[in-house]
Design goal:
- Two copies of one chain form a homodimer.
- The first copy, chain A, is an alpha+beta fold and 187 residues long.
- In chain A, strands 1, 2, 3, 4, 5, 6, 9 and 10 form an eight-stranded antiparallel beta sheet that branches. A two-stranded antiparallel ribbon of chain A has the order 7-8.
- In chain A, a hairpin with a 2-residue loop joins β2 and β3.
- The termini of chain A are far apart.
- β12 of chain A pairs antiparallel with β12 of chain B.
Chain lengths: 187, 187
């Protein structure tokens, strides 16, 4: 695993730059002295200000109760060098596993929530539950991003995107089409 | 634009294989003899069976009312050869523009909903609104995918992923890690 460069504070309004492309994320949580990590692929941005994202956290997951009880979590964005850990984390349960220890990841205290950041990830978004109206029906949480930490480089991280059946893709080519937008508010 | 190969019926339970990686989509709608198309990047899978996705459709968008009134839409997945059209469609309003005509796209009748499929897209998911509880607060629609059409090739389409500021990425490398999953239900 490459040493991750220093992280900087990042405007929460810009979270979409990292989350909207659809990367697999690692959600860390803490409750009563224990921590957990889960792999998650079902999430979307929902608003710029406040910075809201929605995500599905299955109730069968050990993290579900920890996040619901603590009211918060951290959404961490791994890159492809962590692919084996991403799979391993999604393939075992925090009910009987200390995932930070098992996968050699480093918890770093967050600024605003109890759950730790994952140091090895490219970005970490500290989140508080903003709305749980759809938790009962769909396991759907609406999270408010209250603090964002993003590595200073690279500018274009090699995130992981899940296609099912064990297959991930990594961004290849980039297209800068900003000059094609006539209305800048649509960028 | 390359001629798109024939589409086949695709199991709606497998919609995640195309939508979970996070591609920008084109949402087509129809209401009272008019059609519209909008570009959308804020969506997530929510359930396998029924096949549910959630998405944000801003109320300022002409498509918002058409989808809400008709109760349905089609979520089409474009590839990078359509990038200019994807930007253009997101950069004007269907209130005063026939987007199929303006962007040279071909409407194809859907099987189960009134909105047309977009022939030039790689995949098209016919959707009915399943839950609008969060429309008022967040413009968030929960859609049930009732029919899926996917091109027979390529197996790995070059979808577009939006990073903000006019920048899109296209998948490059693929990693097949299915052998790393001990528990096949986690694949």
């Amino acid at each position: 695993m490459p040493a991750r460069t220093a992280k900087r504070d990042f405007p929460v309004v810009n979270a979409r730059q990292i989350l909207e492309p659809g990367p697999v994320v690692l959600v860390s949580s803490a409750w009563r002295g224990k921590t957990d990590i889960m792999t998650m692929g079902w999430h979307t941005m929902m608003e710029f200000t406040p910075s809201l994202m929605g995500c599905v956290i299955a109730s069968s997951n050990n993290s579900f109760g920890m996040i619901l009880k603590s009211g918060s979590c951290v959404v961490n964005v791994p890159t492809y060098d962590l692919a084996d850990k991403v799979v391993g984390i999604g393939d075992c349960s925090g009910a009987d596993t200390d995932k930070f220890a098992k996968f050699g990841l480093t918890p770093v205290p967050a600024k605003k929530v109890e759950a730790p950041l994952i140091k090895e990830c490219f970005a970490s978004f500290e989140c508080e539950i903003a709305d749980k109206r759809l938790v009962k029906t769909y396991n759907f949480f609406i999270l408010k991003i209250v603090k964002a930490h993003v590595a200073t480089s690279p500018k274009r991280p090699k995130t992981l995107h899940y296609h099912g059946e064990g297959v991930f893709s990594v961004p290849g080519t980039y297209l800068d089409l900003h000059k094609r937008f006539a209305r800048k508010q649509n960028l």
